[in-house]
Specification:
- The chain has about 120 residues and is mainly alpha-helical.
- Helix content is about 45%, strand content about 10%.
- The chain contains four helices and two strands.
- A two-stranded antiparallel sheet has the order 1-2.
- A hairpin with a 2-residue loop joins strand 1 and strand 2.
- Helix 1 crosses helix 4.
- The C terminus is likely disordered.
Length: about 120
């Protein structure tokens, strides 16, 4: 088995939002088992979570929650063209104005990254 490490590039807002979600799923709600049923996948999830947290000074700041919400708003605006925080869990994101513009996915293969059209 090839154990070569793979690097993933994320924006600071993406790291912040993902770190917040992982913290919620793993530690506050204790719902990781309900979200990820295969415990064999937990190891990389914990590694990703720890790596994200090490890169964020924001998680120790007094205004953590407003900063996290602002990062989520920027990500939502970038992805769906919305800035008012109206996206709620379970909402149909296909109704967002720019959702139809997302046309590329990224496929990662141990040593190469390929862009694919969808």
């Amino acid at each position: 088995m090839d154990e070569e490490a793979i690097a993933i590039r994320l924006t600071r807002d993406q790291v912040f939002a993902l770190s917040g979600w992982l913290y919620q799923a793993m530690f506050q709600s204790d719902d990781l088992e309900g979200i990820v049923h295969d415990r064999r996948v937990w190891s990389p999830i914990y590694v990703v979570s720890g790596t994200l947290d090490k890169s964020l000074s924001e998680i120790f700041m007094a205004d953590y929650s407003p900063r996290l919400e602002a990062a989520k708003e920027r990500l939502c605006a970038d992805l769906y063209g919305e800035t008012d925080g109206s996206m709620t869990p379970g909402e149909d994101v296909t109704t967002a104005p720019q959702a139809h513009q997302i046309k590329r996915g990224i496929t990662v293969n141990a040593t190469k990254v390929y862009e694919t059209s969808t």
